[in-house]
Specification:
- By secondary structure, the protein is an alpha/beta fold.
- 34% of the residues lie in helices and 23% in strands.
- It is built from 11 helices and 18 strands.
- The strands form 3 sheets. Strands 1, 2, 8, 9, 10, 11, 17 and 18 form an 8-stranded mixed sheet that branches.
- A hairpin with a 2-residue loop joins strand 17 and strand 18.
- Pfam families: FAD_oxidored.
- GO terms for molecular function: oxidoreductase activity, acting on the CH-CH group of donors, NAD or NADP as acceptor.
Length: 407
């Protein structure tokens, strides 16, 4: 939306980042570290709540170390480690694995606040409680709720599934009919209880909790996060499914009395064109969420860093060209977007009506598939490896039948 020309007293920045989640903090920290005058803006004050299971995978661990010099193993108050995962179908355990690749669980309230502070320490100027009310691509400026105006050479929209920046570029962020929806509740442990003594130390995935999705129970330092999520179009009764999960997992509690958070999840609908000119989209704002696993933190961190590097390259040299940032960013995002395309193929193989019983049965009988997906989360495999393995093992006639049945 082009508006009036930005006032002469608008504050100038090389890079303005909108959104203080992992993608935005990664973009701001990397841009500041590269010597760019950087502003990081968020509509909330930190710490603030965020709907997210808070699962930090091996891929996320690697990205945190590279971008923030943050070592999850050295932060026991922020990250709770787990190597145990239980796959369930309602009240039935399909399989428990005690030797899963290392995972870490965190509360986004504390995690995001830490990343914002690390971006600040790198030199980014952090403006919180500063909602963006207008984006002016033609003027390369944004206007904040309090009337302040900031100029940018490159703008990075990392402001989530309901991105103000994406709406300014494309009219709306995402189509709710094509993305996911999730609900979550926090269940606290009794006072004085050591979480490592409880069975909730394990990660639980319930494959029957939602259609084209799943339910989760993630251990935290002071309790567990319980949630359900799946494609919105296939789950019009998501709240009833959430209440059923609360009744199943916490039979002594009152599901109706729980505080339940809800949010759209942009998995499986990433933007092929993640921006326009000198305006880039990263993380959830670009739809960079795995449509099977729900992995979003690692992709947010990586895309935020890549967006900052594209901005720095476009603004460097004797003839800087901010509009070149998108060309460079798209090039660097190709491997990740290729992964997400392949993940959509696997989503049909796993969640379709034809294949879901087959997938659950394969887990129950001890197949290697769960271990391979955990290795994917850990960054040890990619979807290309899984697809090659499937093609080698599965008759072509069965593959064609599965793809034809789809839903």
């Amino acid at each position: 939306m082009a508006g009036e020309t930005a006032p002469q007293d608008a504050r100038p920045f090389d890079v303005v980042v909108v959104g203080g989640g992992p993608a935005g903090s990664a973009a701001a920290r990397r841009a500041a570290a590269l010597g760019l005058r950087t502003a990081l803006i968020d509509r909330a004050d930190f710490p603030r709540d965020k709907l997210c299971g808070g699962l930090v995978t091996g891929r996320s661990r690697t990205a945190l170390a590279r971008i923030f010099d943050l070592r999850v193993e050295a932060e026991p108050t922020l990250f709770l480690p787990s190597r145990t995962i239980r796959f369930m179908a309602g009240g039935t355990t399909l399989r428990r694995m005690d030797d899963a690749p290392a995972m870490w669980l965190t509360m986004r309230r504390a995690f995001d606040a830490r990343l914002v502070e690390l971006a600040r320490q790198a030199g980014a100027e952090v403006l919180t409680n500063a909602a963006v009310t207008e984006v002016r691509p033609d003027d390369r400026a944004i206007v904040l709720r309090d009337g302040r105006c900031l100029r940018y050479r490159v703008l990075i929209g990392a402001d989530g599934v309901n991105s103000t920046v994406a709406r300014a570029l494309f009219g709306r962020a995402f189509d709710p009919a094509t993305i996911g929806f999730g609900l979550e509740a926090e269940l606290s442990l009794p006072a004085g209880t050591a979480p490592e003594t409880l069975p909730t130390q394990e990660v639980v995935l319930d494959l029957d909790a939602a259609d084209w999705g799943y339910g989760w129970i993630f251990p935290k330092a002071h309790g567990v996060t319980l949630g359900v999520g799946g494609l919105h179009a296939h789950n019009p009764d998501m709240r009833d499914r959430m209440l059923a999960q609360l009744s199943l997992r916490d039979p002594a509690g009152d599901p109706a009395a729980r505080t339940i958070k809800g949010a759209y999840l942009p998995f499986g609908d990433f933007r092929k064109l993640p921006g326009r000119g000198c305006v880039l989209l990263a993380g959830d704002a670009a739809g960079l969420v795995d449509p099977i696993t729900g992995e979003g933190i690692a992709h947010a961190l990586d895309s935020g860093s890549l967006a900052a590097e594209a901005a720095a390259a476009a603004l460097s040299g004797t003839r800087p060209d901010p509009d070149r940032a998108l060309v460079l960013y798209r090039r660097s995002l190709r491997p990740l977007q290729s992964e997400l395309r392949q993940s959509r193929f696997w989503r049909r193989m796993i969640f379709s009506r034809a294949m879901r019983p087959v997938f659950k049965a394969s887990i129950a009988r001890g197949s290697s598939m769960p271990a391979r997906f955990l290795a994917l989360l850990a960054g040890e495999l990619d979807y290309g490896d899984l697809r090659r393995d499937l093609i080698l093992r599965t008759p072509r006639s069965l593959l064609r039948a599965v793809m034809a049945r789809g839903r």
